[in-house]
Specification:
Elements lengths: L5 E9 L4 H21 L8 E9 L2 E9 L1 H9 L6 H11 L4 H7 L6 H14 L7 H8 L15
């Protein structure tokens, strides 16, 4: 039997929901993930967590991923960095954790410059002007920012 080293929990929310509902859902997801890890025999404090947010029409798709053991080590090593929209989604969702933590969670390990360069490249490819994590956070503001294609072919 294969030993699991990651778990994912996804919720779909209407974009028009008040921020209090989003915060409550986020808190519930963290609680449920912890409970699931305990059920699987994993100490929730030993895992590392990564948030991802993507937009689909009038909905936001929130995903909380937990990694432990070999997948945690691999994620933090910087061997499998995210790129493109996945990088922007991860950076946006984890930005509040700070630059170093967000770089690690996006798969860049301790390579902060590599993370920043990849973030600039990903935003440039999408026609956005996001030069740094600080700019990504400032673009969000109270209203938020939706970074998603209008269709599969255009932004």
């Amino acid at each position: 039997m294969t030993k699991h080293t990651q778990a994912h929990l996804t919720r779909t929310l209407d974009k028009s929901q008040p921020s209090a509902v989003l915060e409550k859902t986020q808190s519930q997801m963290e609680y449920y993930m912890g409970a699931k890890l305990i059920e699987m025999g994993v100490d929730p404090k030993s895992a590392i967590y990564r948030w991802s947010v993507s937009n689909q029409d009038n909905e936001k798709l929130w995903t909380l991923s937990a990694y432990w053991d070999k997948d945690k080590e691999e994620l933090l090593s910087g061997k499998i960095p995210l790129t493109g929209i996945d990088l922007i989604d991860c950076a946006r969702a984890n930005a509040i954790s700070g630059l170093e933590t967000t770089a690690q969670l996006c798969g860049y390990g301790k390579d902060i410059k590599g993370f920043q360069d990849a973030l600039k490249e990903a935003s440039s490819q999408m026609g956005l002007n996001i030069g740094s994590l600080v700019e990504l956070i400032s673009l969000q503001g109270d209203k938020g920012i939706d970074i998603a294609p209008d269709t599969n072919f255009s932004l």
